[in-house]
Specification:
Layout (H helix, E strand, L loop, with lengths): L2 E8 L8 E8 L5 E10 L2 H7 L16 E8 L11 E4 L2 E3 L5 H4 L11 E2 L19 E5 L4 E2 L6 H4 L5 H11 L7 E5 L3 H12 L3 E6 L5 H7 L3 E4 L3 H6 L4 E6 L8 H4 L2 E9 L13 H6 L2 E4 L5 H14 L5 E5 L3 H9 L6 E5 L6
Parallel strand pairs: 10-11, 10-13, 11-12, 13-14, 14-15, 16-17
Antiparallel strand pairs: 1-2, 3-4, 3-8, 3-17, 4-5, 5-9, 6-7
Length: 352
């Protein structure tokens, strides 16, 4: 298949820093949209992939799946986009489109597996997909999203992962007016969970281990902050919440939070992958029909719904803009949670 070369930033080994690379992008096919990337958010998944923390990284790898840009070219069969439009790409660039999940607009649960924006087998090139730390990307129209015209483009980028990762469970478990939602952890995911739950009309509480995040949480729209290390505060919210969005990305004890769920309430894990330690104590779950569940991103239709909602309510991420040349330092800062609340790369810096 015909390709053209673009500049990108990626790494050739788990222990190597990210640096400028040259990668191939496919020439536009009839259903493709070519996008000049303006901004790309920086997600923990980018770091995990670059450093092979999850295993399975094929090098060289180019991360980035929170992409906002301008359409530069469209294929002959494209109907939704034209050159000059602003467009976005999230965590997926393809799926089988035939399985039961895909037919229900649940491409994120594609049974054979969706094609990730980076480090997935690329059916076009025969190699791997490359992400948004690059000048351009070419994506099938079905997986390209429209950006509401009123939103700040740079601050929109993290909606494509942090936004949809929290929106999907909020919608699935029907958060809205009259519901009580809690959020565990105030980072890239947590701050979006607060904004979106509040936008949906829910009463929102942040669980935090210390009081350091209290002021920020209230400014973001939380109605209350509960210090999870304070037993009296935890007892005061026993049986309160219909839904808890758990954004913590490492092993932690979930048992104290189960007691704060209402009858039939659900705690949804969106941040952590792996075994539980300590084990879940099932007695309060059984005695209150309480659930612990998991959720990952959202389908394309749901992601567009989220972007449109954010346009209507003027919701975007809180960001710190960086140049691509500072990505390695940004990764180190991200490991220390030293970002409020999402790094976004100004991709114009790649052209320097």
């Amino acid at each position: 298949m015909k390709q053209f070369e673009v500049k990108a930033y990626g790494t050739e080994a788990a222990e190597a820093s990210l640096k400028q690379l040259s990668i191939g992008r496919r020439a536009v096919t009839p259903k493709d949209v070519e996008i000049d990337i303006l901004f790309c958010g920086v997600c923990h998944s980018d770091l995990h992939t670059a450093r092979n923390d999850w295993g399975g990284t094929v090098y060289p790898t180019v991360p980035g799946h929170e992409i906002v840009g301008r359409v530069t070219q469209v294929g002959s069969e494209v109907t939704k986009f034209k050159a000059g439009d602003f467009a976005a790409v999230g965590c997926m660039v393809d799926s089988c489109r035939e399985c039961a999940s895909c037919k229900k607009d649940l491409e994120q649960y594609c049974i054979p597996g969706f094609t990730g924006t980076y480090n997935s087998p690329d059916k076009y090139s025969g190699g791997r997909t490359y992400g948004g730390y690059s000048e351009k990307i070419v994506v099938d129209e079905h997986f390209v999203l429209k950006v509401p015209g009123n939103l700040n483009l740079a601050a929109t980028a993290p909606l494509l992962c942090a936004g949809i990762t929290t929106w999907s469970p909020l919608k699935h478990w029907k958060a809205g007016k009259g519901s009580k939602v809690a959020v565990i952890g105030l980072g890239g995911l947590g701050h979006m969970a607060i904004k979106l739950a509040k936008g949906l009309g829910a009463e929102v509480t942040l669980f935090s281990r210390t009081q350091a995040k209290e002021k920020d949480a209230l400014e973001l729209g939380a109605d209350a902050v509960v210090i999870s290390t304070d037993n009296s505060q935890m007892k005061s919210v026993k049986g309160k919440f219909d839904l808890i969005i758990d954004t913590v990305p490492y092993v932690h004890d979930m048992n104290p939070y189960i007691s704060t769920l209402n009858i039939s309430g659900t705690l949804v894990l969106v941040g952590y992958l792996g075994g539980l330690d300590p084990f879940l104590e099932t007695t309060p779950m059984i005695m209150g029909r309480k659930s612990v569940a998991g959720s990952v991103i959202g389908g394309i239709a749901e992601t567009q719904e989220m972007l449109d909602f954010c346009g209507e309510h003027n919701i975007v991420s809180e960001i710190e803009m960086i140049n691509i040349q500072d990505i390695n330092e940004a990764y180190e800062r991200m490991l220390k949670s030293d970002v409020r609340y999402r790094f976004v790369i100004d991709m114009a810096s790649l052209k320097k």
